[in-house]
TrEMBL record:
Protein name as catalogued: Uncharacterized protein
Location of the region described as Disordered in the Swiss-Prot/TrEMBL record: 106-166
Domain of life, per lineage: Eukaryota
Pfam families associated with the record: LRR_6
InterPro entries for the chain: Leu-rich_rpt (IPR001611), LRR_dom_sf (IPR032675)
Localization per record: Cytoplasm, Cytoskeleton, Cilium axoneme
Origin species: Tetrabaena socialis
GO CC aspect terms: axoneme
Length: 474
């Protein structure tokens, strides 16, 4: 956690501010990749509109990712520059911006000895209480001061809906702008999607039981805004992040991107309540097969896989067949192709069976990282066909579609490949556990009770040897 107080060299002629623009741009270049500064004081630095615009562009592009306090007071900024900076704050909610005139604290006093006293009663801890009201302190600590927390929200925007957030129209407008900006906007895009998820959960929790048409009647603005912008949500999935180097490899690999994880969470949230009207709209958007196409392409993203499994379960129990039926057709119903070619990929059940077959006979630790996701998805689909098991999510239409595939029927048959892999798994995604090595029986071990010696017994034995003056190995 760092606070940076920056001061440019003052120009000879205060009216000649052109040289300061270059200084500001150099500072922006330094801050772009900085991930430690949380507070930046640039007050009284003769920063003009060009410098402010450079700062705004850098912050919008996720530069200085940890910055939560920016002081630009007493700089010659035009209303347009201030408006550009305030637009950044709308996206980066955690950023506190200070603009306007720089005023000295009213309670700054000079004592007779020449020392400076900040705040009245500072010797009684008054300054400490003021410190805990700052945004930097609140980010890292919970004060437990309800008065401070409640007052912190006063005077700030409670949101047009009284929920402390953005209006649906404003939120989705920002989402579309960030999608158009491409890869650099992914962190900000993820933040907006997390806000949306919080709103959706709150509104879905207020639906009557049964919900009837309350989810789409417009009385829940964020639900309505979301289902009206499903195409934009699909565009979020199209934003491809830059490649990354994995922990156990040296070559760059395709990344999922946190925005795709949260977009999948939005789909999961919409489908969780099995609202028929919502299911129809999501089915029309083809978001479900797109989620699974991305999930199968990224074997090492468990965060995405966990949410995709919830999407699969909700889809398979839906009354809307258009939601799950495309999954069981070639190309997943969206024309998905085999990597690097034009041939349509197999149906979901065929792709899962093919991936699972590759794990047969492969030792634990050497299997494809996607194997855990594959087996859990197979279990969900098998449960859809099991009307006897009390834990099943039986759906006769899903069973009919799956039984039409002879390859799947063989895969899930009694004693088939799925049964073998599930038996090996034994509750662990990584495969069977290593067997404990057997120790040879001996009279000495038998006298000690047989089996392995516990750590407590080893410590007791060492303490006894120490008391007798013996050293280990004697």
């Amino acid at each position: 956690m760092q606070r940076l107080y920056f001061r440019f060299a003052p120009p000879v002629d205060p009216s000649a501010l052109g040289t300061d623009i270059n200084d500001a741009e150099q500072l922006v270049d330094v801050l772009k990749a900085n991930s430690s500064i949380t507070s930046l004081d640039l007050s009284s630095n003769h920063i003009t509109d060009e410098g402010a615009q450079a700062l705004a562009s850098m912050l919008t592009s996720s530069g200085a990712a940890e910055l939560i306090e920016l002081d630009l007071r007493d700089n010659p900024l035009s209303p347009a520059a201030v408006q550009a900076l305030e637009a950044v704050v709308k996206v980066r909610k955690q950023l506190a911006l200070k603009v306007g005139a720089l005023q000295q604290p009213a309670d700054l006093e000079r004592t007779s000895s020449g020392s400076t006293t900040w705040g009245k009663g500072s010797g009684e801890g008054g300054g400490s209480k003021e410190l805990t009201k700052g945004p930097m302190f609140r980010k890292y600590f919970q004060t437990g001061d309800e008065e401070d927390e409640s007052s912190a929200g006063q005077g700030e925007a409670d949101g047009p809906l009284g929920d402390g957030g953005m209006a649906p129209e404003e939120l989705w407008s920002e989402v579309k702008l960030l999608v158009a900006a491409g890869t650099p906007s992914i962190p900000l895009l993820s933040n907006l999607l997390q806000q949306l998820i919080a709103h959706l959960n709150r509104e879905l929790g207020t639906l009557p039981v049964p919900p009837y048409d309350a989810a789409v009647d417009g009385s829940r603005p964020h639900i309505k805004g979301c289902i009206m912008n499903l195409e934009a949500l699909g565009s979020v999935l199209d934003v491809v992040p830059r490649q990354v180097v994995m922990q156990y490899g040296s070559e760059p690999q395709p990344a999922v991107g946190s925005h795709r994880v949260w977009a999948t969470e939005v789909v999961s949230t919409l489908l969780a309540h099995n609202l028929t009207a919502v299911d129809h709209l999501v089915a029309r958007s083809k978001l479900v097969p797109r989620v699974f196409a991305i999930s199968l392409l990224h074997p090492m993203c468990s965060a995405l896989h966990a949410r995709a499994l919830r999407v699969l379960r909700s889809s398979c129990v839906s009354k809307v067949s258009a939601l799950y039926a495309p999954l069981f057709t070639a190309g997943l119903g969206i024309g998905a192709t085999v990597a690097g070619g034009e041939e349509l990929s197999g149906s979901l059940q065929q792709q899962l069976a093919d991936r699972a077959a590759l794990a047969l006979g492969v030792p634990s630790g050497r299997r494809d990282p996607v194997m855990g996701f594959v087996l859990e998805a197979c279990k969900v689909m098998r449960a859809c066909c099991d009307e006897v098991n009390r834990d099943s999510i039986f759906n006769s239409n899903v069973r009919r579609l799956l039984q039409m595939d002879p390859k799947w029927s063989e895969f899930v048959s009694e004693g088939g490949l799925l049964a073998q892999l599930c038996k090996e798994q034994e509750g662990d995604l990584g495969g069977p556990r290593a067997a404990r090595p057997q120790m040879e029986d001996s009279q000495e071990m038998a006298e000690m009770g047989g089996g392995l010696i516990s750590s407590q017994e080893i410590l007791a034995l060492l303490h006894g040897m120490s008391a007798m003056g013996m050293q280990p190995g004697q």
